[in-house]
Each structure stands twice: as structure tokens, then as C-alpha cells.
């Protein structure tokens, strides 16, 4: 079991929205190069991911369940024998940011017997560090008006008709309170 914890200077709802908007993952989630929602309901979705890590490409189909301040992930098909993740989002004590935690339980299978545990741990450490850096970069890149609108809720977000800002993966475009992504290149 791997457990990670970080604090980001972004409201809880904005961080949850970021994680729940799986179509945007290729613009900020490490190793994810494509993301397709296969099925979706109010509380769950099945997602096909294309990932590249250390030059190796693979696909993973995961089920995502949204439960309040948690996002649960379970691999349906993919490179792991078993893969279950839980993201939690909690407001920081002063209410200005989000404490983000990850609990990841997985089993690699037969090939995992030949990979040293420190290599596996290092890979997940790298993933989490990059992911937190990308979320922090998005928080810094977000215009002040957008952050205020997110903090004040959907009503305020509708007051701004169009906002565009550059992210590491391309452009993030807000039109009438709806977020859209244009991938770079």
C-alpha cells in the first residue's frame, strides 16, 4: 500500500473538479496521454486511459466512483494484476487550500517479482510529485477572477463569459462557466 499526502493552494471543489474531469487528465496527469470516457452515470464512470511511462506504452481501463470528498479508482483491464486507488480531498484548516491524499493498493503480478520494490516506489513517488506540481501550476495559472468564481460557486462563474489560459498540456478555455481543453501540438 502506498500513501501520499500534499497540500495545494486551490479550493477543494476546484481540485475535485479537476480530478473528476477525466477528459482533462492528458493536460496535467503524469503519464496519461489520452483519456476516453466509455460510460458515465451521476456517480461513476468507466474510462479508457492511454499511458506512457519510461518509454513504455500501455492501456488501462478503470472504473471511477465519486463519493463526496473521495474519488475511488479500480482497474478493470490493464497492466496490473490488481489496482485500487482512493483520492481524498479536504479543506485546509484555514480554508484557503486543499489537502490531497492518495492511498494506492496494487499488485503487479508475475513480472513484479523481478522488479525491485524501490523501483516501484520510486515510480509512484515520481508520479505523485509530478501530479502535485501540475495541480499547483494550474492553481497559479488560474486567473484571480476564475479562482474567486470557483470559491463563490456556479452563480459567479456564469458572470464571466470567456477565460483562456496556458497550461503545460495546452490551453484551458472557460466559456460561460464550462471548462474545455485544447491539447498542445
Characterization of this structure:
With about 180 residues, this protein is α+β, with helices and mostly antiparallel strands. About 25% of the residues lie in helices and about 45% in strands. The chain folds into two domains: about 1-140, 2-Layer Sandwich (Alpha-D-Glucose-1,6-Bisphosphate, Chain A, domain 4), CATH 3.30.530; about 145-185, no CATH class. The protein has helices spanning about 10-20, 115-140, 145-150, 155; strands at about 1-10, 30-40, 45-55, 55-65, 70-75, 80-90, 100-105, 160-165, 170-175, 180-185. The strands form two sheets. The protein has a seven-stranded antiparallel β-sheet, with helices on one face. A three-stranded antiparallel β-sheet has the order 8-9-10, with helices on one face. The longest helix has 25 residues, at about 115-140. The chain is globular and about 55 Å long.
User: What is the CATH class of the largest domain?
Assistant: Alpha Beta
Shape summary: globular
Number of helical elements: 4
**What helical percentage do the residues reach?**
25-40%
**Poorly predicted parts:** none
Mean pLDDT level: 83
Give the class from helix and strand content and strand pairing. alpha+beta
Gyration radius, rounded = 17 Å
**Annotation, overall tally of beta strands:** 10
How many domain modules? 2
CATH topology call of the largest domain: Alpha-D-Glucose-1,6-Bisphosphate, Chain A, domain 4
CATH superfamily of the largest domain: START domain
Helix-strand pattern: EHEEEEEEHHHEEE
